[in-house]
Write a structure and sequence with these properties.
This protein is mainly beta and 810 residues long. The protein has a 24-stranded mixed β-sheet that branches. A seven-stranded mixed β-sheet has the order 11-12-15-20-21-18-19, with no helix packed on it. Strands 1, 4, 7 and 8 form a four-stranded mixed β-sheet that branches. A hairpin with a 3-residue loop joins strand 32 (484-503) and strand 33. The N and C termini lie far apart (79 Å).
């Protein structure tokens, strides 16, 4: 009997083992593509509540084997796209096929939702088509503000925009004036004059061509993301050499009718910043509004900033196809500027001031009407109409005599010398209509974008008015009229067309064309520094501009691509450029328009969630570049007879390398680290910007440092994150002669400098605490020598400052 029992047990276990070993299983295969039928690499295909899963390859294909028969829910996920779900029944000895199409979806990063952005932390790039604009083949970056530690209360450019390779800034105290101007690839950073500055896709500068300076910038606490498009950006936005920077404000939350955000920040030199916003969604209405008040006593004497900014937008979503919105931006400020320094004064003490009576204000009002109509699943029509009514007013001890001229009380009169009063008023209307549509050629999706813009601008310029002998802000005239009183008008009509042709699932080519008509005029009078000789002015200038470009993009995987582009650029100079306000330089009366082109070649993308990179080469040809020469007055022999002359210096070529690499080594192995994560990023640019003809052949272009290198470390664990940033900028020159030393402080070398910044954020439920140190090592440096207000001379950058802020969301 025992032998029989043993035999039965052996047979029983053998049957079980045979059933286990020879159980019939099935397979699952398929393809994962995006909305344009392009394969998606590295998408995760998961059978819910099982251990079965797989990844797609570069062709978007996947295969999962040895699946037990049954009915399963399949989930497909990848960063940057919304998940897809389907059910399927797996049968014995059969291979089931299931294909998925993923669509770009809002991606949650900290407190921000962003559409169609590829990033692992803080900075990434935009997809081929985004918000009705083609980005295929174009060099672009996007910065997610709530994912970056930084001093947003003071709009510190290094800690936010510093991640963009090759970005250079004109840093002044308190972000007051200039508004932390930015330049790329060796272009001038002063007031961002060679960069198209936008908010929510529309222009916010004083005048598109007559006066393309930026005095208004939204507070970074209200910004969701910053989009930067460099090089080949002229076709869809304008002809600027420096590309486009676009500040996107936050929206009200879509899941509740009311949300209140408050942030209070204090810091060194009396910094006080209060920011409040409310927003929400009620039925078909979405709204968002904020108010910010900031004041700070300057790091230098005779320096202070008071800013009041407001913003409100409301959007009515009439249907899934049509939405319309209204936005209003408001700025009121009062800024006291301490003036420029000579080289000797800067070396003695960069924190000193020799001017106590310089004031500026720039009231800004922007009203924007926006509309979007989704004509079909393939076609979107967008319209933006913007009214800008703004001004720039200043009263100051003028540039006569340079920074070395003392601003002291005249013993004979017992008063200071009279100041000068300057006024500029701007009124402009910009209308832009854009259409983007997808269509197919042989079952491959193509994308066409067309648009037209009409701009009408007027500027009233009054300068050299006799001001008061006082020290307060006083714009009244005392005993005379303005030396110059001019009315400028600018009319611009522009049209563009771009088409992305796709060949297969990897290669796309985007040719484009832009046509511009520009008409400018000036009327009024000037005295040419001699009030007894009044010269009446009545001039006009019309021109047409044709620009062409071509972009290529090749997908090396679902999340990486090679891009290349070339695009023509143009910078017109009109009579506004020829009569700049408050300038110590002499101006060439025969300034010519500048023209040229940009080209890029690079490789970019993300590898899973641990690597983000963009490595590229650039080349920019800039003909008839406007710059500054140093000349000597032939009627004088003394050393102080050197003066500066603004003219078309020569042709220049800007070429080099730009790289951004960010790696998170912890996420290479796990997404659930108990010790937190650490990431490293490096933003590097090598810029070889030189004149290539004329008397300055071989000289470096002004404000073009050879290298700009920034290295940062971010550590985060649960609700805490901190970032340490080191910024190194090589030396540059302020004039085409590459003058190193001069008795005239408006020209000379801008020495190399290193600045360190540290910032941190702690979040607890609905509350946050932000704190940090700017210029940790208290470096003594400057980024700007200027021949105009707020100089002339060296404008020192700020020393070490501290800040701490507390905020909440309800």
């Amino acid at each position: 009997m025992k032998q029989i029992r043993y035999l039965l047990l052996i047979i029983f276990f053998n049957v079980i083992n045979a059933d286990f070993l020879f159980a019939q299983t099935g397979k699952l295969k398929g393809t994962v593509t995006d909305s344009l039928d392009k394969p998606i690499d590295a998408a995760a295909v998961i059978l819910s509540r099982t251990n079965f899963s797989g990844l797609t390859n570069a062709r978007g294909n996947y295969l999962i084997e040895n699946i037990k028969p049954g009915t399963y829910e399949i989930v497909v996920t990848i960063m940057g796209y919304g998940p897809a779900f389907q059910k399927i029944t797996i049968k014995e000895n059969e291979t089931a096929e299931l294909n998925f199409k993923l669509y770009q979806k809002t991606k949650q990063l900290g407190e921000v939702t962003v559409n169609g952005v590829r990033t692992i932390s803080g900075m990434g790039h935009l997809d081929e088509v985004h918000d009705g604009v083609i980005y295929s083949g174009k060099k672009n970056e996007v910065l997610i503000l709530d994912s970056i530690d930084g001093n947003t209360a003071q709009n510190n450019p290094r800690q936010v925009l510093g991640r963009v390779p090759g970005s250079n800034y004109s840093e002044t105290e308190g972000s007051g004036f200039p508004s932390n101007g930015i330049g790329f690839r060796g272009l001038s950073p002063v007031q961002s004059i060679e960069t198209n500055t936008r908010q929510n896709g529309y222009n916010v500068t004083a005048d598109l061509y007559g006066y393309p300076e930026s005095y208004y910038l939204p507070p970074l606490e209200a910004i969701e993301r910053i989009e930067v498009i460099r090089g080949a950006s002229s076709l869809q936005f304008g002809p600027q050499f420096g590309g486009v920077i676009n500040y996107i404000t936050k929206d009200g939350p879509s899941d509740k009718p009311f949300e209140l955000t408050t942030q209070q920040t204090g810091g060194s030199y009396g910094l006080f910043n209060t920011f409040e916003s409310v927003g929400g969604t009620y039925k078909k209405w979405n709204y968002f509004t904020y108010v910010q008040y900031k004041q700070v006593d300057g790091w230098r004497p005779n320096s202070s900033v008071k800013n009041l900014l407001g913003f409100a937008k409301v959007q009515y979503n009439a249907s899934e196809k049509f939405k319309v919105g209204l936005e209003y931006s408001y700025l009121r400020n009062t800024i006291k500027m301490p003036g420029g320094l000579t080289d000797q004064e800067f070396e003695q003490d960069p924190g000193q001031s020799t001017r106590a009576r310089n004031w500026l204000r720039s009231p800004w009002n922007i009203l924007a009407l926006t509309a979007q109509y989704k004509a079909s699943e393939k076609t979107i029509i967008q319209f933006k109409s913007v009214l800008n009514v703004s001004a720039r007013d200043l009263v100051w001890r003028n540039e006569d005599g340079g920074p070395q001229a003392p601003d002291t009380i005249d013993r004979a009169t017992g008063n200071y010398v009279p100041r000068e009063v300057e006024h500029e008023g701007f009124v402009s209307v910009t209308n832009e209509l854009r259409t983007l549509t997808n269509y197919k050629i042989k079952d491959v999706v193509q994308t066409l974008a067309v648009g037209i813009r009409y701009f009408q601008g007027q500027m009233k310029r009054q300068e050299g008015g006799p001001g008061s002998t006082g020290s307060d802000f006083d714009m009244n005239l005392y005993g005379g009229a303005y030396e110059n009183d001019l009315d400028f008008t600018t009319t611009n009509v522009a049209a563009f067309v771009e088409n992305t042709f796709r060949f297969g699932k990897s290669l796309s080519i985007t040719p484009g064309y832009r046509y511009e008509y520009l008409s400018s005029s000036v009327k009024g009078y000037i005295t040419d520094d001699d009030s007894a000789k009044i010269l009446n002015v009545d001039r006009s200038h019309n021109r047409t501009i044709s620009l062409a470009g071509l972009g290529l993009q090749y997908k090396t995987s679902g999340t990486t691509n090679i891009y290349a582009n070339i695009s023509q650029a143009y910078r017109p100079t009109d009579y506004s450029n020829q009569t700049p306000i408050g300038v110590s330089s002499k101006i060439d009366p025969n300034l010519k328009d500048a023209s040229g082109y940009n080209a890029d070649l690079g490789w970019r993308g993300t590898v899973k969630n641990y690597l983000n990179f963009d490595v590229g080469l650039f080349y920019m040809a800039y003909n008839n570049r406007i710059g500054i020469e140093s000349l000597r007055d032939a009627t004088h022999i003394a050393s102080d007879s050197v003066y500066t002359y603004r003219t078309n210096v020569a042709n220049s070529v800007h070429q080099g390398v730009e790289t951004y690499i960010e790696v998170n080594p912890v996420k290479m192995f796990t997404d659930n680290s108990k010790i937190g994560t650490i990431s490293f990023f490096n933003s590097f640019a090598y810029i070889d910007a030189k004149y290539v003809n004329g008397q300055f052949n071989g000289n470096a272009v002004e404000f073009a440092p050879k290298t700009i290198n920034r290295f940062g470390i971010t550590y985060s664990i649960k609700n805490f994150s901190t970032t340490f940033l080191i910024s190194n900028t090589a030396k540059s020159f302020s004039d085409a002669d590459n003058t190193v030393n001069s008795p005239n402080a408006t020209i000379g070398v801008i020495p190399a400098y290193q600045v360190m910044d540290w910032s941190a954020t702690i979040k607890y439920k609905r509350y946050n605490l932000k704190f940090g140190v700017n210029n940790l090592a208290d470096a003594k440096y400057f980024t700007l020598r200027t021949d105009e207000y707020p100089g002339p001379g060296i404008i020192p950058s700020m020393g070490r400052t501290f800040y701490v802020g507390i905020g909440a969301k309800f």
